[in-house]
Amino acid sequence: MFDNRFEILTYHFSIINILDLLLVVFLCFQLIKLLKGSLAFNILIGLITIYVFWLLVRYFEMPLMSGLLSEFAKVGIIAVLIVFQQEIRKFLLVIGNSSVLGENKNWWNIFPWKWKIQQTFHTPFEEIIEACRELATQKAGAIIVFPITSELKFIAASGEIMESVISKRLILSIFNKTSALHDGAMIISGGRIIAANCVLPISENPQIVNKYGLRHLSAIGITEQSDAICLVVSEEKGTLSYVQEGKIEDGLLAEEILDKLNQQFTKEMVSFGD
Questions:
Q1: Is residue 120 part of a domain?
Q2: Is there a single domain that holds both residue 74 and residue 152?
Q3: Residues pairing with 15 in the sheet
Q4: Quick check: 113 pLDDT over 60?
Q5: What pLDDT sits at residue 95?
Q6: In terms of domains, do 95 and 130 share one?
Q7: Residue 204 belongs to what domain range?
């Protein structure tokens, strides 16, 4: 059924050839979309330029330059894995979350071993937003991370593990300027404060590096590398920001952020076990 061929000028194409081409174009488009606006995008353009130059060198039969570039190509895969490790991790995370085998898919709930893992929880977003509003009034900076599918255990381990009940007074005391935990990020998941004073990866996006401070760059960085959502209180301006997928919305009202969080986390986990 795939032997049907047709001819354009002097080139012969089959259905498989067309499908193959479309898949390559789709993957290239997704890769460019993922890397656009980051430092890795410029590196990718550099690698493509070297590859095109290598093809030209081979076409014109220049053995010395061709041999030199061939040696470079032998370690190219390792270099790509090192340079693009964060982007590859994000790309695989996107694929995993969108796949039918993703852990956050509802059909996983039919398995008995998932029943006791899941727990009913409620996150008091109103109390969190009230605390952030008061911190903004006091010009006290804060960054709160809300993981969605990834538990961010490695990030949590970089700070102080708390496993505490969420309360406005606790959030205010942690981000108080005299507190030893106020500089780092707070992670809230499953209706509890998991950890505080956590160290987040900093965004390397050249378009925003000089535009924001360290706290905002950290929020953008963690949302670039995971599907988490961040809430940032600016110490300098006393404003609230909402960060998701590496994109930041500045100067939002507390009510607007509350609506966004409620919409994002409307589907809470349901317990099937005891």
A1: no
A2: no
A3: none
A4: no
A5: 63
A6: no
A7: 125-264
Q: Which of 69-78, 233-242, 249-258 has the lowest mean pLDDT?
A: 69-78
Residue 178 and residue 238: Cα distance in Å, rounded? Answer: 17
Q: What is the pLDDT of residue 131?
A: 95
In this structure, are residues 187 and 145 in contact, taking their beta carbons and an 8 Å threshold? yes
Coil/strand/helix, residue 45: helix
| Counted domains in the chain | 2
Residue finishing a domain among 72, 104, 136: 104
227 token code pair = 């599907």
Structure tokens at 140: 């006290």
CA distance 124 to 146: 12
Residue 228, domain CATH: 3.40.1700.10
The residue type found at 86 is Q
pLDDT tens for each residue of 10-22: 556 678 878 888 8
* 157, pLDDT greater than 80: yes
Instruction: Quote the CA–CA distance of 103 and 116 in Å, as a whole number.
Output: 15
Q: What is the pTM of this model?
A: 0.62
Residue with tokens 């009913």: 120
